[in-house]
Amino acid sequence: MNPKYIYWQCRLWDWFAKSIPFIMIIVGSIFYNIGIRDWDLVKDILLVFSGLAFVTWWFWVLYTIMTILHFLESSKEGLKDVMEEIRHMYRDINEIHKRDR
Fold this sequence. Notes:
- By secondary structure, the chain is an all-alpha fold.
- The protein has one domain (3-74).
- The protein is 92% helix and 0% strand.
- It contains 2 helices and no strands.
- Helix 1 (3-33) runs antiparallel to helix 2 (39-100).
- The longest helix is centred in the C-terminal third of the chain and has 62 residues, at 39-100.
- The two termini are 51 Å apart.
């Protein structure tokens, strides 16, 4: 997964976390104005939608952490390969240097 895409998703969730309280107030006001004056029903509806958002966010966090860990693991393997190549080059240079003496 592209780090820019993860950053974009983080910005989206940040916007969502900042705007959801206002959206909930607006939805509650709309329910109140159209005649649904049972606050327990409004509260339950808003809690269900909030719960869905929180569960979705939690699974996104787990997926993103898994993606980052996979990226780090593949980077670690790549760095191991590079270090091994550098060791081979160092040995080869030392052998050439010893032969030239």
